[in-house]
């Protein structure tokens, strides 16, 4: 009975509780306490850094996604509000040297299927149409990474935006300890896709031709690609590797 009363007094007494807490703290080795304090300081600094980056991104639509500089190319309000869109004319100007004063290397990512790409494509474009290929792109060394990526598919309606968002989500995850650092902070979507660019300027298409995704001569290829893609997606879900972002990804 007496023991229960003593325990009750200790719980109800702030003084006794503080003494008990101090006694417990004193049992923690000094070096461990120093480590805990250091970790708290680092966490506080990380929080401050992230807050500052988010504020800068919120205050300026013109900064690229790592807050280091403004966007190089002029953008428009395209179909996808979360992405930075450029016009076929802007891409033509880029080819023509209009932005040489900001010269930086760039890569055009053609997200169409291989038979579309082979039937032809924008000058210098590389064919990347799977998430696995995007993962390889993210593994490049710093010296091999182009500073600008421009995505497109046939209409820049689904395939290119999907892969662009996947790249940004994976890029954010890989650099989560150094927010807002990114491997590819400056990415664009070509408004209207290959079709719009082909109609605007065929001079930069190799050769000057256009094979649509639903071309009747390539039905079997389309069916095969869609079957493989669906199978890969299902395997990802089974393994639990399909990740969703808990917040809006800022582009």
Automatic annotation (TrEMBL):
<keyword id="KW-0498">Mitosis</keyword>
<dbReference type="InterPro" id="IPR000751">
    <property type="entry name" value="MPI_Phosphatase"/>
</dbReference>
<keyword id="KW-0132">Cell division</keyword>
<dbReference type="Pfam" id="PF00581">
    <property type="entry name" value="Rhodanese"/>
</dbReference>
<dbReference type="GO" id="GO:0010971">
    <property type="term" value="P:positive regulation of G2/M transition of mitotic cell cycle"/>
</dbReference>
<dbReference type="InterPro" id="IPR036873">
    <property type="entry name" value="Rhodanese-like_dom_sf"/>
</dbReference>
<dbReference type="GO" id="GO:0005737">
    <property type="term" value="C:cytoplasm"/>
</dbReference>
<keyword id="KW-0131">Cell cycle</keyword>
<dbReference type="GO" id="GO:0051301">
    <property type="term" value="P:cell division"/>
</dbReference>
<comment type="similarity">
    <text>Belongs to the MPI phosphatase family.</text>
</comment>
<keyword id="KW-0904">Protein phosphatase</keyword>
<feature type="region of interest" description="Disordered">
    <location>
        <begin position="230"/>
        <end position="251"/>
    </location>
</feature>
<dbReference type="GO" id="GO:0004725">
    <property type="term" value="F:protein tyrosine phosphatase activity"/>
</dbReference>
<keyword id="KW-0378">Hydrolase</keyword>
<protein>
    <recommendedName>
        <fullName>M-phase inducer phosphatase</fullName>
        <ecNumber>3.1.3.48</ecNumber>
    </recommendedName>
</protein>
<dbReference type="GO" id="GO:0000086">
    <property type="term" value="P:G2/M transition of mitotic cell cycle"/>
</dbReference>
<dbReference type="GO" id="GO:0005634">
    <property type="term" value="C:nucleus"/>
</dbReference>
<feature type="domain" description="Rhodanese">
    <location>
        <begin position="102"/>
        <end position="206"/>
    </location>
</feature>
<comment type="function">
    <text>Tyrosine protein phosphatase which functions as a dosage-dependent inducer of mitotic progression.</text>
</comment>
<dbReference type="GO" id="GO:0110032">
    <property type="term" value="P:positive regulation of G2/MI transition of meiotic cell cycle"/>
</dbReference>
<dbReference type="InterPro" id="IPR001763">
    <property type="entry name" value="Rhodanese-like_dom"/>
</dbReference>
């Amino acid at each position: 009975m007496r023991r229960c009363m003593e325990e009750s007094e200790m719980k109800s007494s702030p003084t006794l509780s503080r003494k008990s807490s101090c006694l417990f703290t004193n049992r923690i080795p000094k070096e461990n306490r120093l480590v805990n304090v250091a970790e708290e300081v680092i966490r506080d600094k990380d929080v401050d850094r992230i807050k500052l980056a988010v504020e800068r991104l919120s205050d300026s639509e013109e900064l690229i996604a790592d807050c280091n500089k403004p966007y190089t190319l002029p953008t428009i309000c395209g179909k996808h509000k979360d992405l930075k869109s450029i016009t076929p004319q802007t891409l033509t100007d880029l080819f023509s040297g209009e932005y040489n004063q900001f010269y930086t290397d760039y890569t055009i990512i053609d997200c169409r299927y291989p038979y579309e790409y082979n039937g032809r494509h924008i000058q210098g474009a590389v064919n990347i149409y799977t998430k696995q290929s995007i993962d390889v792109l993210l593994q490049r060394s710093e010296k091999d990474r182009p500073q600008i990526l421009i995505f497109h598919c046939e209409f820049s309606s689904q395939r290119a935006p999907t892969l662009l968002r996947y790249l940004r989500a994976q890029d954010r995850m890989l650099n989560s300890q150094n927010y807002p650092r990114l491997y590819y902070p400056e990415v664009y979507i070509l408004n209207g896709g290959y079709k719009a660019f082909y109609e605007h300027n065929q001079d930069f298409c190799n050769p000057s031709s256009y094979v649509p995704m639903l071309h009747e001569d390539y039905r079997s290829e389309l069916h095969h690609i869609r079957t493989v893609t669906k199978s890969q997606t299902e395997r990802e879900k089974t393994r639990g590797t399909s990740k969703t972002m808990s917040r809006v990804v800022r582009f």
